[in-house]
Amino acid sequence: MDIAGWQSQLRKGAAELVLLCVLARGEAYGVEILARIREGGDLVSEGTLYPLLSRLEKSGRIAARWELPVEGGNPRKYYRLTEEGAALATAMRAAWIDFRTTITTLVEDQP
Amino acid sequence: MTESTRMIADYVRRLRWSLQAIPSEDRTGIVREIESHLTDSLAAGPDRLDASLSALGSPHALAARFVQEYRLAGALAEDRPAPLIGAMLVRSGRSVAAFGAVLAAMLLYLFAFCFAAVAVTKPLFPAHVGLWSLPQGGAFGILTDPPAAPEVMGLWILPVALAGALGCYALATLVLRGTGRHLLGRAA
User: Fold this and answer.
1) Chain A interface test: which of B19, B35, B37 (most A C-beta within 10 Å)
2) What pLDDT score does B116 carry?
3) What ipTM was predicted for this assembly?
4) Measured between CB atoms, which of B33, B61, B66 is closest to A77?
5) Is the pTM of this model over 0.80?
6) Is B70–A54 a contact, with Cβ atoms under 8 angstroms apart?
7) Domain match, B107 and B140 both
8) Pick the CATH number of A27-108 from 1.10.10.10, 2.170.270.10, 1.20.1250.20, 3.40.190.10
9) Domain-ending residue, one of B49, B76, B103
10) Most exposed of A4, A89, B34, B139 (fewest Cβ within 10 Å)?
């Protein structure tokens, strides 16, 4: 039985919610965002993170600014939630909790 | 330049090249961010860089994911033919379908241009523009030396030429968009 495809769909669906919730904890750049996500498991890789960030930025859910270190180090792009993004994160979190309750009842509470 | 920094430079160059479909100011930002990410990875060790490169996937696959997300955000102007032709030309070296689509679209745009030219010149040079029925076949278009045979369409050539121009233009754009969506969305 191959459930890898189905699992990747599940991950894809959850990635946006996870990303918004992680950014709700405060401004961060790519590597920091990945580290925060990895605290909870390996849900989003760098290959999906950056394209997803670009979409959320384009659609106005997150905003970004570049920071150039004084020491001449690596430039970093910091992301934060916009008002719209924060509202969306709250709404998605509530929808997720509803969804989880339903699924738990249907799938996990089997005798 | 060490082996690792050359790997980063190479990856970044190929990524920039694969991101043709993205508007250029955004493209610069994306490429800079990925370059910064890889440089940070390298600073954490060569193993970390290898892991990052394999997690990002090939430059082409990563670019396809960016294009897909941009499309989801509705941030790609799919109606503008010029960027689409550019994006497809980049792929036409590797894909017969892209090459064929670009060729067909170019021909159709050329037809559209000719029809439009007929419609524009008819009111200016009515004697030189039209459709002539000749013993060896017909002649249609703009002729500097029109044949003595009677011109058969008269002013009807205006709506016909305009419809031809619009039809060819729409068809060409349709071909580009259809093939483009198929090709650019696929590699994800």
Assistant:
1) B37
2) 93
3) 0.87
4) B33
5) no
6) yes
7) yes
8) 1.10.10.10
9) B76
10) A4
